[in-house]
Amino acid sequence: MRKGDVDNAFKRCTSIVEQRFFLPPSDHLAMEVRTARAQILSDGNVLITTSSQAPYSVRKQLAEAFTIPAGKIQVKVPFVGGGFGGKAPVTLEILAYLASRSVGGKAVRLTIPREQDMASMPCRLGLEALIKIGADENGLIQAADLTYWLDCGAYTDISPYMSKAIAMDCTGPYHIENLTCDAMCVYSNHTYSTSFRGFSHEGYTFCIERALDMLAKKCSIDPLEFRIRNAIREGSTTPSQVGYSPSLIGDLKKCLTQIKELAKWDGGNANAIKKNTVKAKGIACFWKTENPPTDAISGAMITFNPDGSVNLNTGVVEMGSNGQTHLAQMLAEKLKVDASQVHVVTSVDTRTAPEHWKTVASLTEHMAGHAVVRAADDLLSQLRSNGAQAFGCAENEIEVANSRVFNRNKPEYYIEFKDIVQGYKSNTGESIGEPVLGRGGFMLKGLSMLDRQTGKGQTGPEWTLGAQVVEIEADISTFTYRILNATTVIDVGKVINPESMTASIMGGMSMGLSLASRECSTHNKNGIPNHPNLRTYKLLHIGQEPKYHVGFVETPEEQAPYGVRGFSEHGIIGMPAALGNALSNAFGKQLTKLPLTPETIWRTEQGGINS
Amino acid sequence: MIAFDFDYYRPATLDDAVDAFLQAESKGGDALYYAGGSEIISMSRVGSIEPSAVIDIKNIPECSDLIIDKKHLNIGSVCTLYQISESNLFPLMKLSCGRIADHTNQCRITLGGNLCGSIIYRETSLPLLLSDAHITLYGKDGKRKVPFDSVFNGRMQLSSSEMIVKIHIPIWALSAPYFHIKKTANEKIDYPLISIAAIIKGDYIRIAFSGVCSFPFRSKKIEKVLNDRSNSIKNRARRAISLLPDEVHSDGESSGEYRLFVLENTLLEILKRWENGRI
To answer: Considering CB atoms only, which of A477, A518, A536 is closest to B186?
Structure first.
């Protein structure tokens, strides 16, 4: 990315921070390991059942790799036991297909033990960064020179998209007019990496937000205040030169003002509690836009049951992110019925469900939401047609609500859904209207590839931003600590389901704290993973989580159904940075490396800057 | 999954168990006595071990005692960590057994398994090293009862076909002043960076360590230093960490240097508590 005039801008800076950061790779650790089942029927049809976030990718890759017509491949995905991006790549399905083919098409199920899932299936990428940012005497950031190196492991997979994703959002949600950023994928002999919750945002955010705290300190400004001062706003542009609007990006100042209260922000300084014990808070902001193919699609099909309830069929995979519930809510809202009237087809079958690009990128509510809303409009239009014919009035006089169809001017005469959704039979036995079948298709529009020289362009339909605070209690003599509180305030556009959205955010926060405080996939000097097992790989356990607090800001995204922004991943994004900032405040040392274990903090104390 | 076939024996007597062992070995493979089996499963899954036979000794009555008689607390080798802990019969043992694993595994890991397994920590050995305990073994040459520390030098030194039947802890130890502390890298339940058990007998501190080296140990040299009241607490702790029987352990949990840092701090803490009468 190249924006403005970085060299001259740095000359204006009275405070400059230049720092390296390092994050090792880690693992998704979904509760269910990867597994796939393949069978080839006697007519040549291939049937795959798999734990995957991307059934349509499975179909496509099998078709291309083995030159099978795509129509002869059927992929089914039941409920997935956690994905977190790790089940977006096509992996075991290929091997299961080959295994089935080698035994004449008999059904073959391929399941790998946890140890192999950790060692050879794709993981979360490692990251190194060199961050240089400068501010003037008013504490306003003038320039940023950022370099990111992604450890993508032995295979490329989608790592270039992740370097693009980092470049798109590389500065964080701030007003920075002069920017140069290079994000590069690097092959290594490590387990290859793929999408992970946050799509590399949790990684670069640690680097930039740690640097911002260091810069705020140099400017002698409260870190929260510093972020308010530099928050992205009217007149700002993103790293890729997209102009700010509240609808497109959201309101960071509001999030910061709200979190100041919710987290009882106190400047971030270490407060001595008793001998050798301090408490400290750390803050970080985050944002994220998406990087789908510019022509990604989604769809929805709706049919009625004889009792007037509806069946909703989409290509969205359910893996705990609750996307299907939100889609059902949107449909219920459109039809003005209770959500209990919507029966979601919970497992995906590529033979019958309209294609949804992949269940990734927190784009379910946007893409599939649009498709559902269009399908609902389609239903309403047909219901009005049936109703107009039944009542002998104009279509625009027909109202649909509470599972009834009626003439707005004579609401006391109504027809229940159950009597009209499959066509209508009048008292005299006359057939009227048609059975109602709803369909809606959606394709992303208006997105672009990035300019080769400057990176200018827009890769996703919107941004979602927010602020996070972590509070810890630390023993400064033993370098141990406990995480007490973790807070997020996120601008979600519209809170369509407070409980499930809160739970999503909390789940993300938990993953972020776990990966920042403990997780680390290491390899020996022969490139062999050291700890591909849950006996010795560290992650956060029940009983060690902090208290979680979640608040919402609602700046509607005008192009999204019901104004909802993507949010499912986002709880994770600023957590490593906020924890790093809190611990740096507590120990008075600049922590620049994950994981933030007592030993790594001790080492920083011992040896100056981490190697 | 365990990808190889193996035989399972379930004897009802000590003799039957030894017979099963000899029979399995005569077929040319490796036999393992076991009770909980958690380590066998973990290691077999990844191909680190490939026993031809496992001999389940949980049904042998002598192996499941958990009882105090006139002179000793007797703990059978198939007692689980949870059972030992919950019995409250020996407070120091309760602490040493109490935080080895998560609850599911505490109900499965046994005293015998923890002592004989290949995982290096063997935290249940610490109170046994400190309390002049005895151990009853049984093998093809019959039964023998010997001091625990004569057949344990960091790991169990058993002859082939020998199994642990039970251990015997003298009564005096059950009510002696004691201290236990376990430091982990970050988690509450985890392998130790260091696990220390201490007993005071006649105003003399006895102390044993797990996690510090690649085997658990009791060191008379270190005890001498720690009991030397003519030296300051700080000097005693500093001197003690230079007297380890082997190089400090370094692994995925932590490096050796950090472990030494934690050890020195912990020894200071223990000495301070002892001085203040809080042990």
So the answer is: A518
Partner A, chain B 127-156, Cβ-Cβ below 8 Å: none
Cα atoms in the Cβ-side hemisphere of radius 13 Å centred on A385: 15
Residue B185: which of A115, A531, A538 has the nearest Cβ? Answer: A538
Using a CB–CB cutoff of 8 Å, tell me whether B3 touches chain A.
no
Last-in-domain residue among B130, B147, B173? B173
Both A81 and A147 in one domain: the answer is: no
Q: Do B265 and A478 touch (CB under 8 A)?
A: yes
- Structural domain including A83 reads 35-111
Domain membership of residue B2 (yes or no) is no
Alpha-helical (H) ranges within A72-141 are: 92-102, 114-120
Residues A593 and A456 in one domain: yes
Whether residue A426 sits in one domain with residue A386: yes
Nearest to A538 among B1, B45, B186 (CB): B186
Kindly provide the b/e burial profile for residues B191-216, where b requires at least 16 CB atoms within 10 angstroms of the residue's own CB.
bbbbbbbbbbeeeebbbbbbbbbebb
Chain B CB contacts of A602 under 8 Å are: 258, 261
Statement to judge: residues B70 and B129 lie in one domain = yes
CATH code of B232's domain: 3.30.390.50
Domain membership flag for residue A324 = yes
Contact residues on chain A for B189, CB-CB shorter than 8 A: 541
For the whole model, what pTM was predicted? 0.94
Instruction: Name the phi and psi angles at A467, rounded to 5.
Output: -135, 150
Sheet holding B178-183, edge to edge: B178-183, B194-201, B204-210, B217-218
Cis, peptide link before residue A595, omega less than 30° from 0 = yes
Residue A116: inside a domain: no
Number of compact structural domains in chain B: 3
Tell me whether residue A597 is in a domain.
yes
Answer yes or no: do B135 and B121 share one domain. yes
**Domains identified in chain A, total number:** 3
Indicate whether B150 and B117 sit together in one domain. yes
Q: Residue B34 is part of which domain span? A: 7-56
Q: Who among B1, B190, B252 is closest to A531 (CB)?
A: B252
Following CA atoms A533, A537, A539, A543 in sequence, which dihedral angle do they give, to the nearest 10 degrees?
A: 80
Q: Which residue in the set A530, A538, A603 is minimally distant from B187, CB to CB?
A: A538
Complex confidence, ipTM = 0.89
Residues of chain A scoring pLDDT < 50: 609-611
User: Which one of A111, A146, A177 terminates a domain?
Assistant: A111
- pLDDT attached to residue B226: 97
Question: If chain B, 279 residues long, is cut into consecutive pieces of 10 residues, what is the mean pLDDT of each piece?
Answer: 93 97 93 96 92 97 96 98 96 95 95 96 98 97 97 96 98 96 91 96 96 97 96 96 96 91 96 90
* Distance to chain B for A302, nearest Cα, Å: 43
Q: What is the DSSP string of B153-208?
A: SSSB---TT-EEEEEEEEHHHHTS-EEEEEE-SS-SSS--SEEEEEEEETTEEEEE
Measured between CA atoms, the residue of chain B closest to residue A596 is B186
Can you tell me which residue has the tokens 């996070």?
Answer: A468
With CB atoms and an 8 Å threshold, state whether A541 touches B262: no
Q: Which of B129, B145, B173 lies at the terminal end of a domain, its last residue?
A: B173
CB within 8 Å: A602 and B258: yes
User: How confident is the model at residue A608, as a pLDDT?
Assistant: 54
In a domain, A315, yes or no: yes
Separation between Cα atoms, residue B9 and residue B11, nearest integer Å:
6
Residue A367 pLDDT: 98
Position B36 in a domain: yes
Q: Which of A114, A538, A542, A544 to probe by mutation at the B interface, max B CB count within 10 Å?
A: A538
Beta strands B53-56; B31-34: pairing state: parallel
- pLDDT at residue A611, rounded to an integer: 38
Residue B159 CA to residue B233 CA, distance in Å, equals 42
Task: Mark whether B40 and B79 lie in a shared domain.
Answer: no
